[in-house]
Amino acid sequence: MAWSVALACASTGEPADVFRPGLIPEPDAAPGLARGLYPSATLTETGETVLDFALWPYEDELFVGAFDRALLLCDRRLFCLDDDARRIADTAAAALPGSRCGVLVLHSVIAGCWFRWYDDGDLRREVFVTAEDGVIVDQGERLPAERPFWKAIDEGAPDVPLPFDHEEFGLTLARTQMFGRGIADRGDDGFLPLELPLRRFKLC
After folding, report:
1. Of 69, 125, 124, nearest to 96 (Cα)?
2. Residue pLDDT tens, the chain, 204 long
3. Closest by CA position to 123, among listed 145, 100, 106, 105
4. Cα–Cα distances in Å, from 142 out to 105, 133, 177?
5. Residues near 182 by Cβ (< 8 Å), separated by ≥ 6?
6. Of 78, 99, 111, 143, which has the maximum CB count within 10 A?
7. Which long-range contacts link 113-119 to residues 24+ away (Cβ below 8 Å)?
8. Cα(114)–Cα(174) distance, rounded to whole angstroms?
9. CA–CA separation, 30 and 73 (whole Å)
10. What's the pTM value of the predicted model, to 2 decimals?
11. How many other CB atoms are there within 10 angstroms of residue 116's CB atom?
12. What is the number of other CB atoms lying within 10 angstroms of the CB of residue 86?
C-alpha cells in the first residue's frame, strides 16, 4: 500500500494506554488549536471525519483531533518541509503540556519519509530519507525502533539508493512512537487508529 501522510500526534503517557476504546474528543479544544496555527486566516469548521480520511488533507484545509491526553493534527503544509512546516510541527508538539509528539510525513510519489520526535515540546530527533537520495537529515539520538533499519548503513553500505523501505520505516515509527499499535491495525480491543474522530477546518 502506498501511503501519503501529513500527521502530528501527541500524547501524555504511553501511546498504547492512551489510544484505546473510550477515547472521547474535546470539541471545544480543536478550534482553538486551529486558530493558533493560522491566526491571520479565516477558519470555517466544516464538520467531522475520521483519521483515515484526514491523513492527506487538501491544501486549503486541516484536521484536528483534541482529546484529554492526546492531540492529532493533519495538515498538508507539513509536506513542504520548510520553515512553515517546522512551525506547524513545533506548535503541535507544544500544544499538549508534558506530551511526547511524533510528526510523520510520507509521500507515495516522492517516496520519502520525514519524521520529527519531541519530548515535552523539545525536538529530540529529526530524520528525512528518500528512496532516491538516501539520508538527507539524521539528527538527534536514534529511537530504538529505527536501529534495524540503519544496520546496513552503519556497517558501511551506501545510502543511495536507500537500503530500506521508507514507508515501512515511517509506519514503524508511527506504531512504536505515536499510537502503540499499527495505524491500520485493529486490536483485540476493537480499537483502530484510523477511526479516530477529527474536526475539519477550511482555510481562507
Report:
1. 69
2. 689 999 999 999 999 999 999 888 987 899 999 998 898 889 999 999 999 999 999 999 999 999 989 999 999 999 999 999 999 999 999 999 999 999 999 998 889 999 999 999 999 999 999 999 999 999 999 999 999 999 999 999 999 999 999 999 999 999 999 999 999 999 899 999 999 999 999 998
3. 100
4. 17, 20, 12
5. 171, 174, 175, 193
6. 78
7. 113/166, 113/167, 113/169, 113/170, 114/78, 114/81, 115/170, 115/173, 116/89, 117/143, 117/173, 117/177, 118/10, 118/89, 118/90, 118/93, 118/94
8. 12
9. 9
10. 0.95
11. 26
12. 16
The dihedrals phi and psi of 17, each to the nearest 5 degrees, come to -85, -30
Length of the chain counted residue by residue: 204
Residue that has been written with the C-alpha cell 487508529 in this structure: 193
**C-alpha to C-alpha distance for 63 and 174, rounded to whole angstroms:** 18
The 3 state secondary structure assigned to the chain is CCCCEEEEEEECCCHHHHCCCCCCECCCHHHHHHHHHCCCCCEEEEEEEEHHHHCCCCCCEEEEEEECCEEEEEEHHHHHCCHHHHHHHHHHHHCCCCCEEEEEEEECCCCEEEEEEEECCEEEEEEEEECCCEEEEEEECCCHHHHHHHHHHHCCCCCCCCCCCHHHHHHHHHHHHHHCCCCCCCCCCCCCHHHCEEEEEEEC
| 100-107 vs 5-11, strand pairing mode | antiparallel
* Beta carbons of 36 and 139 less than 8 angstroms apart: no
